[in-house]
């Protein structure tokens, strides 16, 4: 009798594990919806190689230009471009006391041969970006 009770108790647990695995597989195979906008953390990490240039000037590091190009190519939707704009606008606001920082940052896309669909500025209207 004890053996029958153990078998019945294991069966629901096994069913739960199987159901959980099926749910994970279904989620993995489900079509993807719209992707989330790029986070500021991603933007900042991608542009970190530019920090030395923005602070001190000099030669623009290749890694900086590579980061800008990567960011522009990853910002493939209006939502992404607006998110990147907002992140850079926040950085520009934080550096508002130092015009040279903002000037160097704003000139980076041109120096790297990249078209940015907005100006890096504390006053840019990111909602106007398509």
Give the secondary structure arrangement, pairings included.
Blueprint: H1 2-29, H2 40-47, H3 51-56, H4 62-74, H5 78-94, H6 99-111
The CATH architecture term of the largest domain is Orthogonal Bundle
Text of the CATH class of the largest domain: Mainly Alpha
How large is the radius of gyration?
A: 24 Å
- CATH topology of the largest domain: the name is Hydrophobic Seed Protein
CATH superfamily of the largest domain: Plant lipid-transfer and hydrophobic proteins
**Proportion in helices:** 55-70%
Description:
This protein is mainly α and 130 residues long. The chain folds into 2 domains: 1-30; 40-128, Plant lipid-transfer and hydrophobic proteins (Hydrophobic Seed Protein), CATH 1.10.110. It has 6 helices and no strands. It has helices at 2-29, 40-47, 51-56, 62-74, 78-94, 99-111.
Keywords:
single chain, about 130 residues, mainly alpha, Hydrophobic Seed Protein, 2 domains, 6 helices, about 65% helix, globular
